[in-house]
Each structure stands twice: as C-alpha cells, then as structure tokens.
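Archive record
______________

***
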Amino acid sequence: MSEETFDAPVWHNGKALRKGYTTGSCATAAAKVAALMVLRQHIIHQVSIVTPSGVTLRLNVESPHIEGQQGIAAIRKDGGDDVDATHGMLIFARVTLNDSGEIVLSGGEGVGTVTRKGIGLPVGSAAINRTPRQTIEAAVREVIGPSRGAEVEIFAPEGEARAQKTYNSRLGILGGISIIGTTGIVTPMSEESWKRSLSLELEIKREAGLERVVLVPGNHGERFVREQMGLASDIVVTMSNFVGYMIEEAVRLGYRQIVLIGHPGKLVKIAAGIFHTHSHIADARMETLVAHLALLGAPHELLLKVSECDTTEAAMEHIDAAGFGHLYNHLALRICQRVMQNLRFTKNPPQCDAIMFSFDNQILGANRPFREIVEDLQC
C-alpha cells in the first residue's frame, strides 16, 4: 500500500473521512526513534515506519530526550476521523541499550496489565498485543543491529484515565490502555475493531468456564438481568447492533445457551431476520409488528395505528391499550426460530431464548416461561 493510499480519504455517507494510526504504530515509532537517538546521540524530530499493512508513516516526535544509553520519545495518537478514547494522547517509549543481545519489551505507567486469560496474552503481562510487540521489536532490532540488546518500556501518562472510557476493565485489562492494532492504520467507521472487542469478552468468559451467556444491546439489558432476574452481570455480554456476529462467535466458542434480552425496539428486528440492528442497515420495526399482530388476529384499526407510529414505544401503547400484550411472547418465540434457522447447519446448536422488557424494566414477554430461563442460567 502506498503513502497515497493512506492520504486518500475514506468515503462514508458522502463524507470524506481522514484515516489515522493505531497506538501500536505510535509505540513502534516512539521505540524506533528513541533507539536511533541513543545511537546517534542527537535529538530527532521526525521518524518513518512501515506499518504491517505496508503503509509508510512519517510521524512527528514529541518530548525527545537522550541520557547516556537511554532515549525517550513520544508520538501523539491520531485516530483520524475515527476518534476514540486514545485520540490525541502521547504514547512514549523509553529505550535503554545494553550488551545482552536481547530485546526485552515491557509496559510502564498507563499501559494496562492483563489479569484474565482469553485475549491471547499471558496473565500478568503488559497489554501490548502480538502485532505491536512484533513491530516494536523489529523496528528496534533494525536500528540497533543483530548483536546489541535493549530494554524497551512503553508508557502513556494519560493511560489510566483514558482507559476508563474503554472496554478494558471488562476484558480484564486493568490500570491503563492497550497497545493494539493489526494493520497499524485506523480506518474511519470500521466496525471490525469494535466487534472484535465485544467478542473478546465472550472469549474471556468462556475461558473462565461460562457456558451460558446473556447477550444484550446495551446497559439497560445488564440492569434488567441484575434487577429482574437476580443474576450477576458476569453472565452478560454487550452485543450492540452485531446480533448475528455475536451469536456466531458464541457458537464458535461452544456456549450451550444464548439468551437475547432487550427492548422490543431492538429485538423485534431479529424476528424479521435482521441480524445487524442498526437503522442504517434495515428498519422494519412497524412492518414486523403489524405482520405479527395480524397473525394474532388484531383488528385492522390497530394495524393502521401501529403502522403510522414513528417509534416502537408509541406502537407499544396502542398494542397494550388493545389488549395484545401476548404479542411479545409470540415475537420472542419467533426470534428464537430465526436464530435457530440461521444455525441450522450447526452440529451442536445452543439453546436459544429471548426475553423482551419495557423501558421501566418490566418483563413484556419470553419464548418460554421466564422462571425456566432464569433457572437454566443458574445451572
């Protein structure tokens, strides 16, 4: 990939969006320039690296220092137009040369520590993922040659505070940010890194022995599980809009039971076979409600009222007033049928359940008796 490819914007919904670079690229560039400064014994203000995807980045160096056989440098993270919790922060590297012949990489202040299995890094190690580890070590080795050794410490003074805005604590990464990135480049509007962070939580919980999992669109679902089901939130994983992806990941990891819990505004789409629930993908909420109300024999007047609603909440008022609350049990059953249809080629499909709740945290409906689902989750 050429530099022009990096500079060229990504077009999304008619807007030109600027690419950025990962914390892994920042750490690699900082380590490379710190090593170069020690060898040359002079301050350097710009450094080039080639990312794993083949893009050449020319990055400005901040806070460069040399003290004997030790160099320190920082690169400012730039997420382009895909701004995240680490955007704009400084990622530092401290490189100390020695005669050991080995490069030893560690995480310092603001870089998280791995406390659970399941993310591909040893418990107790710094949260520096495999690709950045390789690129950092390769960049330093290229600078210092085959015989010298170096201690490389990556640190980020703002890391602990910034990590509060990430999923790190749920992944068992405590005390700071992760140094991540597989390509070195941040592509605006990319869903892949978000989806991967969600599935990582599934992996960690499975590694810890969990066999039954509750998938929820967001925080309301977690509260419902805690308050109405009396279960610990440890069994809950956020799926956001990525319903199909997270179900497939749960199947891949060997979960025995998957329970989808959420407000009808999200879950009703699954009853229509929509497994990515963001409105930019598809929105057939009213059509789905109307179709299933009709199947249950609802009067034409109710169907018209629901079809003219803009929100699920407004439609639910008409449904309740007409005495069709049993619709939600019917929809929950339909959701499970849709999921099982998707998994029909799976050798050992998991038990699938679905529960819908209202904004005031009350149970609306489920595919089978609510208490049975709770009891199974307690096994």
